[in-house]
Design goal:
The chain contains no helices and eleven strands. By secondary structure, it is mainly β. The radius of gyration is 13 Å and the shape is globular.
């Protein structure tokens, strides 16, 4: 089993920055790609960013491209989501996810992930 714990959420003003972290523990050698998803009230969970096992391939939702950056530190078993120029529309609970299978390209569907964190709330004030 793999446990994922997100941190770093909070209240931020529009235009500001925030960095989310996702620390993996347990059988971390069994997980490869990681991703960030978010879910706003009344909306479905949506893909935000993806990073492959080696960290040299990333993908982003169009809504965050150019503003958010995903990265990972293999030595710390931690993935990050650097959020910049945030907007009120970025308000959501952010979840990190990990998969046991590395597929070609990116995985942007929630069903492709095997492990999920509990989520961290991000609120962007206008």
């Amino acid at each position: 089993q793999v446990q994922l714990v997100e941190s770093g959420g909070g209240l931020v003003q529009a235009g500001g920055s925030l960095r989310l972290s996702c620390e993996a523990s347990g059988r971390t050698r069994s997980v490869y790609p990681m991703a960030w998803f978010r879910q706003a009230p009344g909306k479905e969970r949506e893909f935000v960013a993806y990073i492959n096992w080696s960290g040299d391939y990333t993908d982003y939702a169009d809504s965050v491209k150019g503003r958010f950056t995903v990265s990972r530190d293999g030595a710390k078993n931690t993935a990050y989501l650097q959020m910049s120029r945030v907007r009120p529309g970025d308000t959501a609970v952010y979840y990190c996810a990990a998969a046991v299978i590395q597929k070609p390209g990116s995985s942007i569907n929630a069903w492709e992930y095997d492990y999920w964190g509990q989520g961290t709330q991000v609120i962007v004030s206008s």
